[in-house]
Amino acid sequence: MVFFSVWEIVALSSTAHTYLCTMPKAGTSRKPNFSEREIMLTVSEIKQHYHELYGPLKNNITFGQKTAIWSTICNNINAIHGRRRDAEDLRKKFRDIRKKAKAREAQRLHELQTIGRSDTVLTEVQRMVLDTFNPSAITGILSMDTSRAPEVQPPSVPVETVDRSTRCAGKQLFCTVHNSSTCL
Description:
The chain is built from eight helices and no strands. By secondary structure, it is mainly alpha-helical. Helix 2 (36-48) runs antiparallel to helix 4, helix 2 (36-48) packs parallel to helix 6 and helix 5 (87-115) crosses helix 6 (124-130).
């Protein structure tokens, strides 16, 4: 006869629970990966409706209208490829493609800026997706590098050498302009 301690039983039941809960349900399988053709069609369909879904018109369209647009896109893709994709699958795939395309383009621009050439090659899908971006979304505003901390310039006149009457005159001027009776 085999005896188990309480801790061994707890460990075994925990392992069995984890195994059983992570197993796929009987009769179901995961959806197949997106094919290149399916990705290309998804991007081109979303690009046709980009202004309504993500662009300047996105705030003027109701949730129901957006859902109808996503359903139309989903139906078009499912009709051609025969797979059962839902709108959430397409949204997630497009979000992932946008993220990867933006990262690749930023890497390419960084290489061009630092070493003068880039070995990063963008796919046709990534180039299509990059057409939907505002250029400042990738390069930044006025191509500023915001990852570095700004340099702090020391004051031109040390604070200790400033005459107190000068500081008070500035406060007096402030009080006069703002019609304040009390000055600090």
